[in-house]
Specification:
The protein is an alpha/beta fold. The protein has a single domain (14-275, 310-317), classed as Vaccinia Virus protein VP39 (Rossmann fold), CATH 3.40.50.150. The longest helix is centred in the first third of the chain and has 16 residues, at 22-37. The protein has helices spanning 14-17, 22-37, 73-86, 91-94, 129-139, 156-163, 188-197, 214-219, 222-235; strands spanning 45-49, 65-70, 97-101, 114-119, 140-151, 177-179, 183-185, 200-208, 244-251, 292-294, 300-302, 308-309, 311-312, 315-317.
Length: 320
């Protein structure tokens, strides 16, 4: 059992503020740029599941509608502030971004509402990733892209520690490896089996942060490290020994789509996605009702079960 990390009492920006993790941030962006550059249609809905403080927003800023989901209200407030500043307080650009506080295994989003989704540095906090992948499969339309990162149990450091007797659990075994109280490292084969069950087919796998060693980061210039990182990602990712593994997958589900407002839009009218109101995307996480309306108080309500959900500084709070 792992302890939940909600980041309400910790400013996650501090984790990235100094230069100690500039290499990791840059290495992850190398992968994300590769994945997103292959998505030709930016006139679509993009969801960042577990968005934190919006660290990666500039990588997917060009999509017509962007939905930022995180469990932490504090993270989302910081994300909103950073994104506002990044977009120079342009109200038209800001209006295409929706901020949602929710449990990623019970998303308040209509089925098949998303064209693309990403999740980075989240799965190691989830004890049942299979449940999460099933929920992601529900909200991404058939043929949609799901990009994900997970902490790799079968990384080179763990292999060396196991061979030297410093850890008992084999990095080659399928079961997760718990690190501390809040993190689980997963074997690539285990994650891919869960994705397969959820209807996702892996199209690309990239090993990332392959030179994440304190000695290397202290003595080798970042530009040099990233040169070798990019080379490794392009040539040797099949070895899968980096501390992070990125997967680009496609939702192969052929189930009948729910007839939501957005799904009725013909391809020629996809530009209207960017101006569709936030309430058109939502369902009630308690009962699944699709009629979510605004209240005079500024909060929102499910007309089916009458559950009300607060809106805090422009953030829709669907946490139970």
């Amino acid at each position: 059992m792992i302890r939940q990390s909600d980041y309400e009492n910790y400013d996650y920006r501090q984790f990235w503020q100094d230069d100690k993790r500039l290499y990791e941030d840059s290495a992850e962006r190398l992968v994300i740029k590769k994945f997103i550059s292959s998505i030709k249609n930016k006139d679509s809905v993009f969801i960042d599941l577990g968005c934190g403080f919006g660290r990666l927003f500039n990588e997917y800023k060009d999509f017509s509608r962007i939905i930022m989901v995180d469990y932490s209200i504090n993270n989302l407030k910081n994300a909103k502030e950073i994104i506002n500043r990044f977009l120079k307080n342009d109200e038209k650009l800001l209006s295409k971004v929706i901020f949602i506080a929710a449990d990623v295994t019970n998303l308040p989003l209509k089925s098949s509402i998303a064209d693309n989704a990403i999740t980075v540095r989240v799965i190691h906090h989830i004890e049942n990733p299979g449940k999460y992948f099933t929920e992601v499969g529900r909200i991404i339309k058939p043929g949609g892209i799901f990009m994900l990162e997970f902490a790799n149990k079968r990384n080179l450091k763990n292999i060396l520690r196991f061979l030297s007797g410093r850890i008992k659990q084999s990095p080659f075994s399928i079961e997760p490896l718990q690190i501390g109280t809040t993190i689980l490292d997963y074997h690539p084969r285990y994650i891919m089996s869960l994705l397969d069950k959820a209807g996702f087919k892996v199209k690309k796998m990239i090993s990332a942060s392959n030179f994440r060693l304190g000695f290397l980061k202290r003595h080798i210039k970042l530009k040099t490290l990233l040169f070798f990182e990019s080379f490794y990602q392009n040539i040797f990712s099949f070895i899968n020994t980096g501390p992070s593994i990125f997967l680009k997958t496609i939702n192969t589900s052929t189930g009948e789509l729910k007839k939501t407002h957005l799904q009725k839009l013909p391809v020629s009218n996809r530009t209207s996605i960017g101006t569709t109101g936030p309430l058109d995307f939502f369902i009630c996480p308690a009962c699944g009702g699709e009629n979510i309306t605004s209240l005079p108080s500024g909060n929102v309500e499910c007309k089916k079960c009458q559950n009300q959900y607060p809106v805090i500084e422009g953030i829709f709070n669907f946490k139970s």
